[in-house]
Amino acid sequence: IKKIGVMTSGGDSPGMNAAIRSVVRTCAYHNVKCVGIYRGYEGVMDGDFKDMDARSVKDIVNKGGTILKSARSKDFRTPEGRKIAHQKLKNAGVDALVVIGGDGSFNGGLIFNQEFDFPVIGIPGTIDNDIFGTSHTLGFDTALNTVVECIDKIRDTASSHNRLFFVEVMGRDVGHIALNAGIGAGAEEILIPEENLGLERLLESLQRSKRSGKSSSIVVVAEGDKIGKNVFELKDYVETNLDEYDVRVSVLGHMQRGGPPSCFDRVLASRMGVKAVESLLEGKSSVMVGLSDGKMILTPLEQAVKGKSQINRELLRVSEIMST
Ligand code: F6P
User: Fold this and answer.
1) Which ligand 1 atom is the nearest neighbour of the CA of 256?
2) How far apart are CA 41 and CA 68, in angstroms?
3) Which of 119, 220, 271, 318 sits most deeply, having the most CB atoms within 10 A of its CB?
4) Residue 176, ligand 1, Cβ within 6 A
5) How many angstroms separate the CA atoms of 113 and 130, rounded?
6) Calpha distance 142→314 (Å, rounded)
7) CB of 171 closer than 6 angstroms to any ligand 1 atom
8) ipTM score assigned to the predicted complex
């Protein structure tokens, strides 16, 4: 392998820049050329490439977002789009890809690898932590810290006014952000898709906490939860059924995806970049780099896209005990 292309694809996440830097510098370390590809698979099809050397990634380890930009591509899902992409890579002399992204991006990489026998390695980058084959995705830890910081602030005003707040957090179909940040921020209840609390039990829980002397409460709601009402409907429902509650809603939104990466995410990104490039140089392909028990591991892309990341059920119990 003489030239490696690196790109970011799907929703951005803090730590992607640190991963780009790591891929570029590991290439430089091993005397392999590296090109940055802009806007994910869209940029592959457009041949939007830029040669990158070790100095071109200075001052980005601490930056959120991605200097290579990111996109979700429709055209790459078609055989014609992938054929164009393959041609563009061949023309530029790129003979392997490092894809930093989520499962949609890995699916694209997997098909591309199968169609053209083109070496592809994935680095999991998403705040949702919803990828099988790694305990942590890039950006998850930073997003947790952001959410906890926001809820700490919400708590101040909730407590001053004796209010109940529903705080909606991201996570797409999974509850990792809600569950972890909810415990970290001392939430009263945490609503996640993996465990449907039910409306009745939510009311009971809120009544119980009032009786136990709590004057304000925070309920963290994962955007994909299955309780059947969105946060605004939940507010109306609780206010209708429990007179004693004055309820407010806060939807944290995209602020969860931005900001400087935490030290954990920077170190993880640096490790993953090294592992990805060195695995390619060892002849590995169609695998994803991941973290397991503190070590770097490889998981076949096929498993990474098919498998489901599980929530840590111990945390459910911890959360229940903490809200006593
Ligand atoms: O996958 C990351 C994520 O931020 C999810 O948590 C969220 O559901 C989605 O992306 C939002 O996507 P968009 O930025 O396209 O609105």
Assistant:
1) 4
2) 11
3) 220
4) no
5) 22
6) 22
7) yes
8) 0.98
**C-alpha span between 135 and 235 (Å, rounded):** 34
Report the residue among 9, 69, 106, 127 best suited for mutation to probe ligand 1: largest number of ligand atoms under 8 A from its CB. 127
Extract the annotated binding site for ATP. 11, 72-73, 102-105
Task: Give the Å distance between the CA of 107 and the centre of ligand 1.
Answer: 17
Strand segments (E) across the chain: 3-8, 33-37, 49-51, 96-101, 120-124, 164-169, 189-191, 217-222, 247-251, 287-292, 295-300
Tokens for 136, please give them. 């942590």
128 labelled catalytic: yes
What is the full per-residue pLDDT of the chain (324 aa) written as tens digits?
A: 999 999 999 999 999 999 999 999 999 999 999 999 999 999 999 999 999 999 999 999 999 999 999 998 999 999 999 999 999 999 999 999 999 999 999 999 999 999 999 999 999 999 999 999 999 999 999 999 999 999 999 999 999 999 999 999 999 999 999 999 999 999 999 999 999 999 999 999 999 999 999 988 999 999 999 999 999 999 999 999 998 899 999 999 999 999 999 999 999 999 999 999 999 999 999 999 999 999 999 999 999 999 989 999 999 999 999 999
Q: How far is the CA of 184 from the centre of ligand 1 (A)?
A: 22
Report d(CA 21, CA 27) in Å as an integer. Answer: 10
Annotated binding site for ADP: 21-25, 155, 186-188, 214-216
